[in-house]
Amino acid sequence: MSKIQKVLLTGKSRTTSADGRVIAGNHEGNLNISLSAPRIPAAPAYAFEAVAPHPTAEQLFAGAWSACYIAAVGLVAKEKNVTLPANTAVDIEVDLGVGGSAYFLQARLSLVVPGLDHALATAIAHAADAICPYSKATHGNIDVVLNVVTA
After folding, report:
1. Please, one GO biological process term (predicted)?
2. I need a labelling partner for 78 at 20 to 30 A (CA). Which of 21, 40, 46, 62 fits?
3. Quick count: other Cβ atoms within 10 Å of Cβ 58?
4. CATH number of 105's domain
5. Is residue 4 one of the residues assigned to a domain?
6. Which residue range is the domain that position 57 belongs to?
7. Which of the pair, 122 or 46, is modelled with greater confidence?
8. How much of the chain exceeds pLDDT 90, in percent?
9. Contact yes or no for 121/113 (Cβ under 8 A)
10. 76, 90 in Cβ contact below 8 A?
11. Cβ burial 74-84 (10 Å sphere, 16+ → b, else e)
12. Closest CA to 109 of 151, 58, 145, 71
């Protein structure tokens, strides 16, 4: 049974792969991006390149997740009547790795709020993690380390 009672937004994408090119796009036309597939040593068709010519799916996931998370941080701060510093940022690193013969993701998420009280910033970070749909999707699925930087 779906937890959603009302759909607010639907993101649609179609990704194609031909001749070694991976392209993600949408029907609205505002997304048309070439992607680099990760090149994995165990799979010669996906051997790593030193510098990928295009973003990877992991980079796009990190970007989408950080955009969602920083919006959640703003909502939580507003509810707590906290003014966030102008240079508030979210840094997310998403790793693609292998364990045994299976592939997995893991991530590190850092909320950067210079000058904010560390305990307050930590409370905001955890509350945002609880309401951000991307964060909720990762709970129990990938290992995530949540950090707060106030210095």
Report:
1. response to oxidative stress
2. 62
3. 16
4. 3.30.300.20
5. no
6. 14-149
7. 122
8. 56
9. yes
10. no
11. eebbeeeebeb
12. 145
pLDDT, tens digit, for every residue of 58-92?
A: 999 999 999 999 999 999 999 999 999 999 999 99
Q: How many CA atoms lie within 13 A of 8 on its CB side?
A: 2
Query: Predicted confidence band at 101 (pLDDT cuts at 50, 70, 90)?
Result: confident
Q: Is 9 inside any structural domain? A: no
Number of domains in the chain: 1
CA distances 151 to 64, 80, 87, 100, 105, Å, are 25, 21, 12, 39, 29
Burial classification of residue 50, based on how many CB atoms lie within 10 Å of its CB (0-12 exposed, 13-18 middle, 19 or more buried): exposed
Residue 81 lies inside a defined structural domain of this protein: yes
* Start-to-end CA span in the chain (Å): 44
Instruction: Please report where in the chains the tokens 């919006």 appear, as a residue.
Output: 71
Does 7 fall in a domain?
Answer: no
d(CA 93, CA 66): 10
Are the C-beta atoms of residues 125 and 146 closer than 8 Å to each other? yes
CA-to-CA distance for 120 and 129, rounded, in angstroms?
Answer: 14
